[in-house]
Amino acid sequence: MFTKLKLRIPFLHYRPELPELLQAVLMVAVGFSAAPVLQEYLGLSYGAALTAVAIAEALGLLHSLFSDPVVPGWIASALSLVLSYLGAYSVGLESIHAMIALQLLVSVIFIVLGATGLAHKLMRVIPNSLKAGILLGAAVAAIGRVFGDSGYFSKYPLSIGSGTVVALFVLFSTMFKNMKEKWRAFREIGKYGMLSSIIVAMLVGFVSGEIQLPRVEWGFIPFSFGELFRNASVFSIGLPPLKMFLTALPTAIAVYIIAFGEIITEEAVIKECREARPEEPLSFSSNRSNVIAGIRNLILALVAPFTGLAGPLWAAVTVSIGERYKEGRSSMKSLLGGVGSFKLSTAVCVLFLPLASFLGPVLPVALACTLVVQGFACSYIAIEQVKDNKVSAGIAGLTGAVVYFADMNWGLLVGVAGYLLMEGGLQSIIARAVKRESPEKKLKKIG
Q1: How far is Cα 341 from Cα 11, in angstroms, rounded to an integer?
Q2: pLDDT of residue 1 exceeding 50
Q3: Residues in CB range of 411: below 8 A, 6 or more apart
Q4: In the prediction, which pLDDT does 229 show?
Q5: Which of 71, 145, 241, 391 lies in the 20 to 30 Å Cα band around 330?
């Protein structure tokens, strides 16, 4: 796998694409929205949180740099699980250590399974009911953070309501899909993914007064590398205790299960692009994607623990870029050019204080819209896993509820117990354990 790595440098190996460069200017709000989460759950200062965001965005360039034709992002669907896990620790050194332990474990899982090619085998072993239960728990937790008690919706009802309606309509509605086939204007809107929802949410928020008008500042973001190193790097505060790693392991496994769903989505998107444009040989390897995501998580865990984690796919953006790519060479010369341009733009835009200050008041709304979209996606992916088996569906629902109302440890226990006792898992294991050779085979051996 490592011998097949090829460097792809922007301007030298692919032409930047203007629509993706422009789309990223406002979509960087989603990246910026990690800053208040880092402040709230890890106790970082505003400057240190923005510095961590800038590092995370820069590391996302590794995918296009090594020919992985997707836009990476957070493991956004797992964010609520991560925040629930962190909620058991006091904000500050303890929560930072807990985040480091979790992100290090996630990085090891990504790298080991990607380098060995065991990822697909592992996912075949995990029961669909357990996968679906974890996804349902993540979906409810994500939507609960928006619409639950003291959630984002209670503070920005009009902004979040309008933004999420537009996002779900543009990304998932069959009605909008039909509209795109008939009218060019809707096709243009669809190309930009969630951008239209962010714009609508901003306008509604400004007009209604829910969102304060921004005070634009000039220059670069207030980098705080020294503070981030002193307060959050393992080279300064040391490694977490072993107990934290053991506590974080169930959540790390659940995070990878969610992330692997993103890798499956990657493969589906690339397959559609290959079929539409066979003239361009698109190089995609799930093993390579695993390893790159693992390296990003490893670096972040060591120097800038990041609650969003480093995921292999920003699904909404990658799908919208793929749709434009499928329209032909005149629309987009190279898929790598599209995804690389978007990520390059976010990595650069995140450095500018005018954008950070302009988008600052909008960040909670942008994060809320992203959580609702991810909750929606997790829900339908979960249902797809168990739609043909009512027992599996029931176990998935029970597991998801326990994940949300209790914690991941109990959720995994319920899911595994349900599979063993209700789906026949234990019976299958016993049958294999007591299986003996038939008398006919024994006679053949003797003969």
Answers
A1: 10
A2: no
A3: 133, 134, 137, 254, 399, 400, 402, 403
A4: 95
A5: 71
d(CA 424, CA 163): 44
Distance of CA 145 to the CA centre of its chain: 16
* CA distances (Å), origin 57, targets 112, 125, 335: 23, 33, 20
CA neighbours within 13 Å on the CB side: how many for 254?
Answer: 37
Distance CA 58, CA 76 (A): 18
Q: What is the pLDDT of residue 226?
A: 93
The whole-angstrom separation of Cα 161 and Cα 31 is 21
Q: How many CB atoms lie within 10 A of CB 277?
A: 19
* Contact predicate 60/346, CB 8 Å: yes
Where along the chain do its domains lie?
2-391
Residue 10 per-residue DSSP state = B
Chain Cα centroid distance, residue 154: 25
Mark out the alpha helices in 238-362 (DSSP H runs): 242-276, 286-303, 315-325, 335-349, 353-359
Is 131 within 8 Å of 260 (Cβ atoms)?
no
Helix 128-147 to helix 390-405 angle (10° resolution) is 40
Residue in 244, 158, 235 with CA at minimum distance from that of residue 203:
158
Whole-model pTM above 0.85?
no
pLDDT in tens, 51-92: 999 999 999 999 988 888 888 988 877 887 898 899 999 999
